[in-house]
């Protein structure tokens, strides 16, 4: 009698478990279907997609293309061999909207920095407003929590109009990147990130490693940047003015720790220049990074071909007088002059601080990514 009762309870438990599993599977499939509909709606008519397939694990987009168009400096703003979006089971079991992961395989992404220093990304997707619909009213879009966004074997090209004409292009290849814990569209809370890649150069390639965290709503952040053996020819417009002696060869190592708290920035850094080759001076008085060219050449001969410069970027990021390009070149000029024990002219020592456009650039990227994800998973992007 007891054995029969026990078997009955086992069968009841198994039946309940079967119903639960079936319900979870069905719910997950429903969530995946909803996710697919939102993806199709968000991409819009300006995008090219070979296929969108719904699987048991999520939504898979094959051969995504978003053209640059207009004055965009590259043929495509975004390309990706495959994008996989996986909803979270918690989204089905609770009232929260969660995306467990977004994985982008072999992506190409182009960024455009305007002459004013504003950074633009994926204009086709971010400017898509839907088919005659008006943007959502404030508070209408639900918050979507994203566990991770991962890029595998990516390429990134930055076209910068703020430092050179024609546009300066910096290319990174072999990118592996991840972004964790993002809330869209509020962007509240800390989001951590890591990025590694190869910095392409005319003569040789270097390596980049960038990692840290940021809280966009407060503008607080802590970011560590490490560059190794980067070709100086590729970065010359950021280091010296266009009328100075040109760089013909050399490599650069950079270590920078940037921290922002309560809108106050402090970013100590160190640059090591190795095997520098400079073009002949134009006229009698040539300069490089704000100091006489001949002094740089003489110092290199005495120090085994290496120069190490320490600098600090600091200031109030809320100040309207900030200018990133001027700041970096000025700080490096000061450090170069101190290292070589020479005088520097034409620059006021008290004037250099990180520019508003530089801070604006970081914010535009975060807002751009947040806007795109909001369009995908949480409704239309607000104006």
Mean pLDDT: 75
Could you list the spans in which at least 5 consecutive residues all have pLDDT below 50?
A: 17-27, 126-140, 346-370, 372-383
Number of helices: 7
**Alpha carbon gyration radius:** 26 Å
Number of domains: 1
Helix content: 25-40%
Largest sheet: 13 strands, mixed
Shape: elongated
E-strand count: 15
Quaternary structure of the protein: single chain
Structural class: alpha+beta
Separation, N- and C-terminal Cα atoms:
70 Å
SSE string, helices as H and strands as E: HEEEHEEHEEEEEHEEEEHEHH
Topology, please?
Layout: H1 2-43, E1 47-54, E2 59-67, E3 76-87, H2 89-93, E4 97-113, E5 119-121, H3 123-126, E6 144-160, E7 168-184, E8 191-199, E9 206-215, E10 220-231, H4 232-239, E11 247-261, E12 264-278, E13 287-288, E14 291-292, H5 293-302, E15 306-316, H6 324-340, H7 356-377
Parallel strand pairs: 4-6
Antiparallel strand pairs: 1-2, 2-3, 3-4, 4-5, 6-7, 7-8, 8-9, 9-10, 10-11, 11-12, 12-15, 13-14
Helix pairs in contact: 1-7
Structure in words:
The protein has 383 residues and is α+β, with helices and mostly antiparallel strands. It has one domain. It is built from seven helices and 15 strands. The protein has helices at 2-43, 89-93, 123-126, 232-239, 293-302, 324-340, 356-377, and strands at 47-54, 59-67, 76-87, 97-113, 119-121, 144-160, 168-184, 191-199, 206-215, 220-231, 247-261, 264-278, 287-288, 291-292, 306-316. Strands 1, 2, 3, 4, 5, 6, 7, 8, 9, 10, 11, 12 and 15 form a 13-stranded mixed β-sheet that branches. Strands 13-14 form a two-stranded antiparallel sheet. A hairpin with a 6-residue loop joins strand 8 and strand 9. The longest helix has 42 residues, at 2-43.
